[in-house]
Write a structure and sequence with these properties.
Number of domains: 1
Radius of gyration: 20 Å
Structural class: mainly alpha
Helix content: over 70%
Distance between the termini: 16 Å
Length: about 170
């Protein structure tokens, strides 16, 4: 049962990460369109730069669970690498437990932030294009929730390692 949860959660994080990787082509396409329109036709767009900025922010925040799933966040490997496995597992339990508390507070704030944006039907004032911001602000609580799910999986893994019952990866 636990192994199935971990496989499902890792699969979700991988799906989100791979989707973001492919969606970056949309952002690159918008930037290429802007370059061609500006430099070859002398007619810059009013939307490409702002869209690419919003997409980049979206991709960065959504990549958190994928990054955690693959252990790519910053860590002091010099110290961590010298620790015995049980101490690594204990440190992971403590750090991920604290992270879960911080993320729970952040999730509550992010939900309120997105809800206010939806209630006001908030639009960008950065350009004359004025795209709606509420869909992009909705990504924040979604990304935090996805990260919390992956943190929970890492807590389970650390607990199993500490108990001497690690789940082998693929």
């Amino acid at each position: 049962m636990v192994a199935r949860y971990l496989v499902a959660q890792d699969g979700l994080s991988d799906l989100v990460g791979r989707s973001i990787a492919w969606l970056t082509l949309v952002m690159v396409g918008a930037l290429m369109w802007e370059i061609v329109a500006r430099y070859f036709f002398g007619s810059p767009t009013i939307w490409a730069h702002e869209l690419s900025t919003m997409l980049y922010g979206t991709f960065c925040i959504l990549a958190g669970s994928y990054t955690l799933r693959h252990g790519a966040h910053v860590r002091s490997e010099v110290v961590y690498g010298l620790m015995p496995e049980w101490l690594k597992a204990l440190c992971d339990l403590i750090v991920f437990g604290l992270l879960m508390l911080v993320l729970a507070v952040f999730l509550d704030m992010a939900i309120g932030f997105a809800a206010e944006s939806w209630a006001a039907r908030e639009y960008s004032a950065r350009s004359i294009w004025q795209p709606p911001l509420y869909p992009f602000k909705t990504v924040i609580p979604v990304a935090v929730a996805l990260l919390m799910l992956q943190v929970l999986a890492e807590i389970v893994r650390a607990g199993l390692r500490l108990a001497g019952r690690p789940i082998t990866e693929d």
